[in-house]
Amino acid sequence: MSTTSIDISTLIARTPRLHGGSPHIAGKGVTVRRIVAWYKRGLNAEEIAARIEHLTLAEVYTALAYYHANKQEIEADIAAQTAEAQGLEALYGQNAQNQTIRITTKVLPGDKIEIQLPPGSVGEEVEVFVILPEKPKPGRRRVLEFIEEIRSRHASRTVEEIDRELEAERNSWDS
Question: Mean of the pLDDT values across residues 101-117?
Fold first, then answer.
């Protein structure tokens, strides 16, 4: 029976454009900071792995080992994120009845995003709105837009001239 051993140092990565270069689980994008946040809330490794289902228990333990070996670095990372969150709260304000948090994040592999909520939100129901930027449709214009453009450029053109320009536009669509 053959066994394959895994070098646990390969389980933690740093990617410059992902989470500001913070250490995360390689290939998963879950930050050590996020795992530590759950750990500090009293969850054990098994509970964290159950909560973040796409992580293995080994990955969670590796993140916790990384935290304990690099506590000062991770604590500084957590403090920086907390300061940024407080800055956003100050910038966008809070309403006692309805708290609003604006988060900008990147799409991760597998069309996933990661959102880390403030402490104390475990079990609390939240609404999440995702606004995707509208991508312009390349190429084709609507015929009415084209006619309007022609009229604005050439108000004195005849119907026959406009018809010829429309025919040329239609022919360009087929090529």
Answer: 70
- Flag whether 138 is in a domain: no
Split at pLDDT 50, 70, 90, the class of 155 is low
Q: Return the percent helix, strand and coil in the chain, to nearest 5.
A: 50, 5, 50
Structure tokens at 21: 């270069």
- CATH at residue 13: 1.10.10.10
User: Which ranges constitute the DSSP H helices of the chain?
Assistant: 32-40, 45-51, 57-69, 71-92, 143-153, 159-174
Q: Does 28 map to a domain?
A: yes
Q: pTM, whole model, 2 decimals?
A: 0.52
Separation CA 118–CA 99 (nearest Å): 11
Flag whether 13 is in a domain.
yes
Q: 48 and 5: one domain?
A: yes
Place of tokens 């070098």: 7
